[in-house]
Amino acid sequence: MFRKLATGVALSAALLMPLAACGSSADKSGGTAKPAASPSPKPAELLSAAVTKTKAVNVSFNLDGGDEDTTGAYDVTKKMGTVDLTNAGEQMHLVVAEKDLYMLGVKDLGGKNLHMVVAKFPAEHGMLIVADPVVALAMLEGAVTVTSPTPNSYQGTIDLAKVTAATPGGAKMLEGLIKAAGAKANAVEFTAKVDAQGYVSEFNTRFPGADQGKDMLYNITFSNFGAPVTVTVPTAKLVEAPAASYQP
User: Fold this and answer.
1) Is the pLDDT of residue 3 over 70?
2) Does 25 have pLDDT greater than 70?
3) Which are the contacts of 9, defined by CB distance < 8 A and separation ≥ 6?
4) Quick check: 188 and 215 in contact, CB under 8 A?
5) Is the pLDDT of residue 120 over 70?
């Protein structure tokens, strides 16, 4: 089943110890036809517009998976990001590229940088939760019901089978989530918020069965919309992850 990120990170590091549409109508009142006001956009249309706007810019994010707090930033043009987290008191830094993951700062690596290939991850691997840091925006595009209980606040259900991820890592994560959810995959409940500038600022859900048979909490917030993001892929002191690191 889908493991949490810290579990995946810990396993990888431990294994490396030996290696150091609108209509219109007419109002005929008063004898003169006048164009009527356009109907208010539906909640689904408003949320879709916010998703489109957010997907077009760089963002910072904070991901709460229940047990660990993960922060980072994403460069939408390069489809690359950075991820920082703490595991067992140890600070770790990940560089997320479209087809690769790099783990830096792990003591057991002895100053080396771990390289992992996204294509080698099985769909249930815990590292995939950060392989596409903005996959939540793609998920909102798979919403099949949307309501807005208060202005700029949305809730509804997502059909995971209707979600199209922008990266291989996101696609693999979705594959694992759909498998874990089973019959519940077509009605995953969510809430979301949009800020005053029209950007998606928050997405919350629970993925059915994704935490070793239990529901997995997934709360992510976005900020710093459009700010510059610097991502540097390590090219020196690289060590390839052993085959065992890819086991779920």
Assistant:
1) no
2) no
3) 85, 87, 92, 103, 126, 127
4) no
5) yes
